[in-house]
UniProtKB/TrEMBL annotation:
MF GO annotations: calcium channel activity; kinase activity
A matching Pfam family: Mid1
Name under which the protein is recorded: Putative acetate kinase
Organism: Mycena venus
GO biological process, one term: calcium ion import across plasma membrane
Length: 466
């Protein structure tokens, strides 16, 4: 730093430039690592200081406008010789390119850095996040999971998290789960998920696909119940039971994680007002079941069926079949002898449980909202497959089980059980959905009309039991 007597000898013009530079440097905002800074007016000067670090992830989220609205541009430098990064470049200047309102850059900052912003619209609000790990703002590749709907209700799930540590059984103590398996303790500190549901006509997909933009939208309907549920080995999920929806309406759903991350959208449609089936979920013996079954409305004040009010005429035979099957399966020397180098007795029991739940708990469909070519069968109770639906079930349209749910069990189980599935070239289509996951022709895989049993638009072509 120059002594005062030397500074006084500098030309007046140079003094003005020096004062302006010092003033600009003093008014630049320093971005704190591990925090999110919200900017609601165009910054002046348009630069932000970044602290020195071995690695920083700088993320941007636009909070207003649509995906085709011109937005600000962001330029970053980790060079100590570039004080004002912008479109004209400089040493180590990188542009953070935004996609649907998101953008991030990760790198080293040995001497700190500077973030510059240009072309800020007058009413734009945006967030800047700085972290030493992954970017704070993120558009996650995962999505919410749609269970099923009635005319005014729906079941949705968050992405999975906290996968349980399930140890595979081993010989000589090869013990399989019971028909009603014990559920591990739920995580004490679960993820912070927020569900947003809105009619598709509101155009949420045209907005900036950021959490700060979507948080400004009021969610439709009422989350009447929120529970943690372990659907499968992928992990725990939040299960949301929604009410107050409108019949025959297309909806869009997002899930926000920790306020700054947002999943990709999914879509679903509510059934017509004449739809008479009821939703069922949270069955420990059928943990993945979350759809409408041909039952009358549950006893008040319950909104749906679960393990506490499921009719014994349906639950008892199902549990008994699982118990008997497991007993028969374990007559094989599981874990000591191997009937396959790929699958085990545990795989056999798991796939059998999925198949049994899918065929025992008929899934209702709505002819007014079902996708074209779905495996639908008008049904009159009592069902030949499950007479437990006889009381008050009436007439309904059934979404047939996927044939692959059966063949998965056939492949996973030892031959001595005698489990067999009908063949597509004969009579499989009488009781199963054929050609939706596989082509329906023996030996040819992946040639179905969809390649999946369901999609992110709420369409279901057959009932997989998942």
């Amino acid at each position: 730093m120059l002594p005062l007597d030397r500074i006084s000898m500098l030309p007046a013009a140079l003094l003005l430039l020096l004062n302006a530079a010092l003033s600009a440097a003093q008014t630049r905002t320093t971005l704190q690592t591990g925090f999110v800074t919200t900017i609601s007016t165009a910054p002046n000067p348009p630069f932000f200081i970044l602290a020195a670090a071995d690695q920083l992830a700088v993320s941007i989220a636009l909070c207003k406008g649509t995906t085709d609205t011109p937005g600000p541009r962001f330029f970053l430098t980790n060079s100590s010789t570039t004080a004002s990064p912008g479109p004209d470049g400089g040493d180590n200047v990188f542009e953070i390119v935004l996609d649907q309102g998101h953008g991030s850059w990760t790198g080293t900052f040995p001497s700190g850095g500077v973030l510059g912003v240009t072309n800020v619209p007058p009413t734009m609000t945006f967030e800047i996040g700085v972290s030493t790990g992954v970017p704070i703002h993120e558009s996650a590749a995962v999505a919410a999971l749609f269970g099923d709907s009635t005319a005014t209700q729906a079941i949705l799930f968050s992405p999975p998290f906290s996968a349980p540590d399930i140890e595979a059984p081993k010989y000589p103590n090869y013990t399989l789960p019971s028909a009603i398996p014990s559920i591990p303790a739920a995580p004490s500190d679960p993820k912070n998920y927020t569900l947003i549901v809105s009619p598709t006509s509101n155009g949420l997909t045209s907005m900036q696909q950021t959490s700060c933009a979507l948080r400004t939208q009021r969610s439709t309907g009422v989350v009447a119940a929120q529970n943690l549920w372990l659907r499968d080995t992928r992990g725990w999920r939040f299960e949301w039971f929604m009410t107050g929806l409108t019949p025959k309406t297309n909806y869009t759903a997002y899930v926000l994680l920790d306020d700054y991350k947002v999943t990709k959208p999914i879509f679903f449609t509510t059934k017509s007002s004449s739809f008479s089936c009821s939703l069922v979920s949270r069955l420990p013996y059928c943990p993945s079941i979350a759809y409408a079954v041909p039952l009358p409305p549950p006893p008040s004040p319950a909104l749906s069926y679960d393990s506490t009010n499921m009719p014994a005429s349906l639950a008892d035979p199902l549990i008994s079949s699982l118990t008997n099957f497991t007993t028969t399966l374990t007559t094989f020397a599981c874990g000591r002898d191997f009937y396959s180098p790929i699958v085990t007795c545990a795989d056999c029991q798991r796939t059998y449980r999925t198949w049994l739940c899918a065929v025992s708990l008929s899934r209702c469909a709505d002819t007014d909202t079902a996708p074209p070519s779905a495996a639908l069968l008008p049904s009159q109770s009592p069902q030949t497959r499950n007479a437990g639906f006889a009381a008050g079930s009436g007439t309904f349209t059934q979404l047939l089980p996927c044939l692959e749910t059966c063949t998965a069990t056939d492949r996973a189980c030892p031959n001595f059980l005698g489990f067999r599935c009908p063949l597509p070239r004969f009579n499989a289509a009488q009781s199963y959905g054929v050609g939706f996951i596989d082509s329906g022709r023996d030996g040819e895989m992946g040639g179905g009309s969809t390649g999946l049993w369901a999609d992110d638009y709420g369409n279901a072509w057959c009932n997989s039991g998942w």
